[in-house]
Structures are given as structure tokens and as C-alpha cells.
């Protein structure tokens, strides 16, 4: 796997996690930064990948990242519709664009490498 693509995927995962956890906390009326939403999801994703290696790891990672990115896109769409501050709406637009591009790339990999269910 290309190192730049992997680095971008990891950065997208982390940024998406921040967006999803913040939005989940706001949706639940919880303004704390702790809690179980993104922390638990990330821990579960990591645990699910812990025993995988090689192609099995790649397939599981891509599947998990697509789901994660789709959540980030959904949250950013909501944010772009509801946010007051221009910085938030610009960030939301950037997240949508970047995450959709990465989802497309990962789906192409799934197809190319035979990882589709």
C-alpha cells in the first residue's frame, strides 16, 4: 500500500473520529469530551483488526474505514447545514470532499483486490 495513501487514510480516520464524536456528544446533549462514543468505536475497530494480517487485515481495515468515513460525511453534511460559524462550514465541506474521495479510493481497492462481500 502506498505510504502517502495510508497516512492520508489514518489522518482521515482521526479527523473523522473527531467530527463524529463531537456530533454524537452534541446530539446526545452531552458537552463533555469524554464518553463512550468515538473512544469506544475506535477501540472496537482496533480490537476487531488486532488478530488480522495480510489480505484479511487489508479487507477488514478498508471495510471499517469506509463505514467510519461514511459516518464522518453524514456528520459533516449535518454540520454544513446547521453550523453558524464559517470556519465550521468550511471544515465540513473539506471533510465531505476528502472523505468521499477516500471512500471512492477504498471502494476501488475493494473491487480491484476482490475484497467485496
Write up this protein:
The protein is mainly α. Helix content is 81%, strand content 0%. The chain has helices at residues 3-27, 37-49, 54-82, 86-113.
Topology:
Layout: H1 3-27, H2 37-49, H3 54-82, H4 86-113
Helix pairs in contact: 1-2, 1-3, 1-4, 3-4
Summarize the structure.
This protein has 4 helices and no strands.
Keywords:
single chain; 117 residues; Ferritin; mainly alpha; 4 helices
Cα(first) to Cα(last) distance is 21 Å
Q: What's the gyration radius in Å? A: 15 Å
> What's the total count of β strands?
0
Helix content: over 70%
Subunit arrangement of the protein: single chain
Task: Predict the CATH topology.
Answer: Ferritin
Query: Approximately what portion of the residues adopt beta-strand conformation?
Result: under 5%
Amino acid at each position: 500500500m502506498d505510504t502517502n495513501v495510508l497516512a492520508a487514510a489514518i489522518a482521515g480516520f482521526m479527523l473523522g473520529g473527531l467530527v463524529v464524536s463531537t456530533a454524537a456528544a452534541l446530539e446526545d446533549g452531552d458537552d463533555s469530551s469524554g464518553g463512550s462514543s468515538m473512544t469506544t468505536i475506535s477501540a472496537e475497530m482496533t480490537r476487531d483488526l488486532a488478530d488480522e494480517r495480510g489480505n484479511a487485515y487489508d479487507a477488514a481495515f478498508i471495510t471499517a474505514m469506509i463505514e467510519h468515513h461514511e459516518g464522518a460525511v453524514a456528520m459533516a453534511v449535518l454540520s454544513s447545514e446547521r453550523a453558524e460559524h464559517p470556519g465550521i462550514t468550511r471544515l465540513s465541506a473539506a471533510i465531505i470532499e476528502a472523505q468521499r474521495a477516500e471512500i471512492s479510493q477504498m471502494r476501488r481497492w475493494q473491487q480491484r483486490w476482490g475484497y467485496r462481500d
